[in-house]
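Most newcomers find our protein records easier to grasp once they have seen one. Nothing more is needed to start thinking about how sequence determines fold. Here is such a record, shown just as it appears in the course material:
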Amino acid sequence: MSRLAAVVAIAAWLAGCAVPADRPDANMIQPAPASLPQPRISPVPLTVGVYYSQEFAQQPVADRAMSGISHRPGTASVALFDRVLEAAFEQVLRLPAWPLPAGAERPAVIFVPRFAGIATVQTPGSTARLLEYAIEVYSPSAERIDSWTIYAKSRRDGPWSAQDDPLYPAALRDAAAQLLTSVTTRPALKPRFPAAVPAAAGTRSRSTPAGAVRVSITSPLEAAEARERAGETRCVAEALAQANPGASVIPLEEIQDELFPWFEHANLADTSQRMVELMRLAPVREGLSAARLDYIAFLHTERTSERNPETIRCDTTYRAYGCSGVRGDALKSRVQVSLWNLKRYSMSARFETESAGSATFSGVVVPIPGQQSSPASACARAGDTIGRLVGGG
């Protein structure tokens, strides 16, 4: 075979093995832009700019935790920041260059996002995704005013692969929720923004049927911690339903879209502290009306233990021969509740319930049973109190 024929044959073989241009890399994750609910945000009457570098918008990002996996999240992330800034401000200018060239329009501030990192963490039963967005804010003269990082998370149980990746929608939603509540509230930025206009007093456009009342119960914890304490929330809900048969307990997940971004898990702690301020905002009141929610109860739970000095007990009778070390622990469970009346836009009550008991832990030689504590009684009393406070709507 001539050299030319050999070259042609090799080229033909390589062409047959080449990956088609329209087939994505099996280890490259390319998320679609997030589908987000309508943000319940009062836009700041201001024009701001945003600059997306080529690296942010187009370049792939290697996964920090999983070798061989990379991400091309630029399109989804640009859409995310566009959506957030357009909801938060009256006008947004997409800037073609940064720093600003001479003669260019000069917005009040300029947002410049970048990726701080992406990680996919697998455990035997679940997979988690962490997105880190670093946001820098500049004045038109290129002086940096502020910078912070958003840590967005998502998690799913069961198997996962780069070609079947449901982790991005939840992670992007989490990122949007945190961005929406931070871009206008940073202490370094607030003096540069005019204040949002509060809502007038007004009434709700939709109401709960007479004799019924809709209550949501939540704990302002991270999603993982909330799952661990789901039993406490369930205990409160069951006691509430028993105390007030006319009350319907509405899972938070059913109304999150109507109240986006305030009642996402990442923002609940801040929301519980800012309820008075938030309920002055017209979009938040519109969301509460759309959710047809009458009350929301925030639960803060804590457990404490006071350990007694260790003692030694010996028994030589035929029933329990031998010696054992015995340690007594005084256990307490406390539930703090803040109950908000969403028809009157005010706090109805703030109270706490507590249960105490003693648990005895014996040594291995002679088990000596002790009285078990009953932490459930604190949450049951909390639910009973909420049920009586909400009345009949």
User: Anything to note?
Assistant: Residues 130 and 153 are 5 Å apart (CA to CA). Residues 1-23, 309-329, 357-375 have pLDDT under 50 and may be disordered. The first strand starts at residue 28 and ends at 29. Residues 24-192 form a domain with the Double Stranded RNA Binding Domain fold (CATH 3.30.160.150).
